[in-house]
């Protein structure tokens, strides 16, 4: 975008490597190569299992046996698709007139970057502005045997499917991968230290997700921390915890968070005066400018809101500010997001707790129902929807959903919240019938009214 807007742009990126987490490179970055995109392909792959079962209730019969599944075929098709996308990113850069360098970059001055290229040569390039966007990488606690486990990087490229998996963590990646492995037939346990998964999400969403994990056959171990992992003679792994019994599995997958990529490879930031925060993230102002005026940073390396579309927004604001000379701040209000556990979660705006913290008195509308798509299947899995409405302004300040297609539904509601839609406007919107989405415009009676005072009493 910067190049198309008139800047002369060079870009340095490590080489593409589908498998190894040792090199985190490739055009497209984490999202395309070892994050959102391959993950979503595996989520799709895993979602068929429940659908095959549900189909029986709708008159289909596949005999005694479920259709067979080949992990190898799914992974190979996924890798082909990622390679295709990686190629497209390269061509997009070429078409935009960007000069590509394959290798690593180290900032050696406010306007100078030293390149260590894949062909073994070194080169120093100069630029009026340097933009850092090296992303982040998986992190896990330093307990005995921790390295016997893997992260999502390796899990997305396993050659064979592990039969028994322990996922450690309760965040986005943990619940998504627990759903993937369970849907594809592994025996899955998920262990997290809190009472519920998905810290930061609305409490009712969190409890619905916990129930759904169990409903999909995943064993939930809450309130535990792993203390050690050891390898057994048969190659299996045993994980011990600070509470409860040890578990023996074929694979331990760490999903305990990610850290900014400022030190591996060394970007040389400290030496040039780019300050980092306590978590190692690049400190930036509202325009993504670092403590060195000619150096900017966007995306996970700044640890603001670590989502691909947010990094894109920050990048576009950078282009407007620096290349077009129109100072533009990224807007972090009402960022919709989704978690692709099964069924998925989607949300935009405030949780009930955040609304109370902001001092709002709110009407809370909730709806729990059996999605029509499984009504004849005999499967028990509830969809959950929630609207939070500021009583004083009638504005809808939060929308939350757990259920089929929630991500697709929430994108439109994100626009509504961005426009400051009121509950009255939601109510005057005609529903699409029959759909789950219509529930968001037909919830008439508040489930409860909450106010900071009442919350304080509780
Ligand atoms: P999250 O921050 O979402 O979750 C980390 C999990 O690890 C939490 O459950 C946390 O527990 C736990 N944890 C942290 N430290 C420890 C520890 N020392 N011991 C035990 N448990 C620990 O990180 P993820 O790795 O899942 O994802 C990283 C980010 O990537 C997400 O926050 C999100 O921004 C992004 N992402 C977005 C996706 C999407 O949009 N669909 C998909 C995947 C990732 P606790 O909650 O108790 O702190």
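Sequence proposed for the structure above (458 residues):
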């Amino acid at each position: 975008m910067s190049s198309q807007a008139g800047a002369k742009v060079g870009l340095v990126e490590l080489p593409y490597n589908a498998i190894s987490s040792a090199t985190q490179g490739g055009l497209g970055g984490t999202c395309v190569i070892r994050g959102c995109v391959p993950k979503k392909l595996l989520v799709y792959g895993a979602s068929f299992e429940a659908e095959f079962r549900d189909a029986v209730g709708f008159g289909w019969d596949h005999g005694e046996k479920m259709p067979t599944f080949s992990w190898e075929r799914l992974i190979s098709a996924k890798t082909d698709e990622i390679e295709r996308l990686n190629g497209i990113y390269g061509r997009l850069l070429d078409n935009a007139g960007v000069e590509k360098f394959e290798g690593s970059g180290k900032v050696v001055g406010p306007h100078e970057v030293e390149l260590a290229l894949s062909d073994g040569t070194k080169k120093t390039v100069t630029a009026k502005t340097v933009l850092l966007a090296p992303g982040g990488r998986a992190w896990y606690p330093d307990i005995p045997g921790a390295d016997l486990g893997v992260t999502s990087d390796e899990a997305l490229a396993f050659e064979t499917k592990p039969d028994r998996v322990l996922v450690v963590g309760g965040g986005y990646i943990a619940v998504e991968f627990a759903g993937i492995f369970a849907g594809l037939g592994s025996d899955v346990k998920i262990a997290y230290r809190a009472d519920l998964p998905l810290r930061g999400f609305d409490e009712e969403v969190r409890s619905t997700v916990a129930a759904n994990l169990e409903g999909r056959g995943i064993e939930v171990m809450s309130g535990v921390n792993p203390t050690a992992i050891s390898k057994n003679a048969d190659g299996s792994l045993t994980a011990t915890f600070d509470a409860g019994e040890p578990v023996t599995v074929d694979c331990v997958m760490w999903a305990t968070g990610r850290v900014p990529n400022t030190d591996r490879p060394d970007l040389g930031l400290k030496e040039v005066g780019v300050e980092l925060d306590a978590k190692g993230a690049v400190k930036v102002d509202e325009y993504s400018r670092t403590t060195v005026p000619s150096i900017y940073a966007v995306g996970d390396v700044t640890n603001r809101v670590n989502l691909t579309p947010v990094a894109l927004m920050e990048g576009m604001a950078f282009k407007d500010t620096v290349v077009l000379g129109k100072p533009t701040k990224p807007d972090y209000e009402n960022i919709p997001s989704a978690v692709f556990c099964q069924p998925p979660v989607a949300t935009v705006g405030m949780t009930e707790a955040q609304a109370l913290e902001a001092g709002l008195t709110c009407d809370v509308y909730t709806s729990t129902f059996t999605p029509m798509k499984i009504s004849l299947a005999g499967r028990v899995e509830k969809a959950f929807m929630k609207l939070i409405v500021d009583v004083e302004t009638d504005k809808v300040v939060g929308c939350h959903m757990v259920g089929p297609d929630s991500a697709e539904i929430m994108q439109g509601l994100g626009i509504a919240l961005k426009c400051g839609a009121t509950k009255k406007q939601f109510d005057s919107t005609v529903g699409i019938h029959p759909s789950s989405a219509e529930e968001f415009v037909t919830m008439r009676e508040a489930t409860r009214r909450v106010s900071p005072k009442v919350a304080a009493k509780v």
